[in-house]
């Protein structure tokens, strides 16, 4: 992969993915070393977006595996198309060559590829996004890091299948549980947190350029103040900040207003308990006043 650090920096900027130098360098090293990158951080900070952006940068397929409790090898790697196999058996019973056909029941014709096998067999280097790995079970995690270690899988009926191209692998975690040392050893680690005011201003400018300078700065400051309240359980994500910005632009707002904050709060806080905390401890008028104060002092 002919890629320089400066190339990657420019590609992120072109894709509208605003990140700091540590993030660019960490991703670059994972690409050069062809090692999975494990991104931890709270929900809504751009972890999943990293996989999407890398697929965009390299103009390749994004293959996503959404993890959940109970996810197993069959759902992540491959399954046999039992219905198609049964259909062939039924047809074979009426065919004099049924005995010869039976041996073909476990061929690639009847193999259903799931995300891991699809990524390994992709005709060109793909991006494999393993989203929310912390939601899976320990057993699946152990299976996964063995696959990611050798980038090959064994299917008893077909033998060992090696990767045509080692995929770009992005794993995300919301830190709901501690991941194993075995998985971490196989990955390059990156922690992403909510952006500060200056960085969020850059993100809004990149994604919603039609928002005016004043509105952009006030939104970034307001969201930052909400996130700093420790009793807000579900902090507004970057995506929710952008949705709020687009909503205010569609309402022809060029500055925040107390009444507007009150009426559009549900775009930022999507939990009734958090909305009550906001009303009791922050309040729309207080947030409006602080967001309109001198930007960054």
How does this model look, in words?
The protein has 3 domains: 5-76 and 114-191, Rossmann fold; 78-113, no CATH class; 197-291. It is built from 15 helices and 9 strands. The chain has helices at 5-14, 21-33, 47-57, 73-76, 82-93, 98-101, 115-121, 138-150, 181-185, 197-207, 213-228, 238-250, 258-264, 272-281, 284-292, and strands at residues 37-40, 62-66, 78-80, 111-113, 127-131, 152-155, 159-162, 168-173, 188-191. It has a 5-stranded parallel sheet with strand order 2-5-8-1-9, sandwiched between helices. Strands 3-4 form a two-stranded antiparallel sheet. Helix 10 (197-207) crosses helix 11 (213-228), helix 11 (213-228) crosses helix 15 and helix 13 (258-264) packs across helix 15.
List the helices and strands and how they pair.
Layout: H1 5-14, H2 21-33, E1 37-40, H3 47-57, E2 62-66, H4 73-76, E3 78-80, H5 82-93, H6 98-101, E4 111-113, H7 115-121, E5 127-131, H8 138-150, E6 152-155, E7 159-162, E8 168-173, H9 181-185, E9 188-191, H10 197-207, H11 213-228, H12 238-250, H13 258-264, H14 272-281, H15 284-292
Parallel strand pairs: 1-8, 1-9, 2-5, 5-8
Antiparallel strand pairs: 3-4, 6-7
Helix pairs in contact: 1-2, 10-11, 10-12, 11-15, 13-15
